[in-house]
Amino acid sequence: MTIGKSTPAFSLDPRLFQIAALSGLLFFGLTQRAFEIELSHAAAILVAACTAQWLGSMMVASPLDLKSPVITSLSLILLLRADAMWPLAIAAAIAVGSKFTLRLGGKHIFNPANIGIVSMVLLTGAAWTTPGQWGTAVWFAALLAGAGLFVTQRAARIDVPLIFLGVFAALLFIRALWLGDPLAIPLHRLQNGALILFAFFMISDPKTTPDHPVARVLFVAATATAAFIMTFQFHLADGLFFSLAAMCLLRPLFDWLAPAQLYQWGDAPPSLPRIMNPIASSTPIQNHHPGRLT
Amino acid sequence: MNRSLRKNLLAATAALSVTALTGGAVAFCGFYVAKADTKLFNKASKVAIMRDDDRTVITMANDYQGELSEFAMVIPVPVVLEEGQIHVTENAIIDHLDAYTSPRLVEYFDEDPCVQYERFEMAAPTAAVEDAAGEIRRKDSLGVTVEAEYTVGEYDIQILSAEESGGLATWLTQNGYKLPEGAESTLGSYIKQGTKFFVAKVNLDEQAETGLKYLRPLQIAFESPKFMLPIRLGTVNADGKQELFVFTLTRTGRVETTNYRTVKLPTGSNIPLYVKDEFGDFYKSMFSEQVEKENENAVFLEYAWDMNWCDPCAADPLSTDELRELGVYWVGGGQTEIMPRRPMPPGGAQDVFVTRLHVSYDAEHFPEDLMFKETGDRSNFQGRYVLRHPYTGDASCEAADAYRAELPKRFEEEAQTLANLTGWDINDVRERMNEGGQSFEKPEKKSWWERLWDNDKDD
Question: If you measure CA to CA, which chain B residue comes closest to A183?
Answer without folding.
Answer: B367
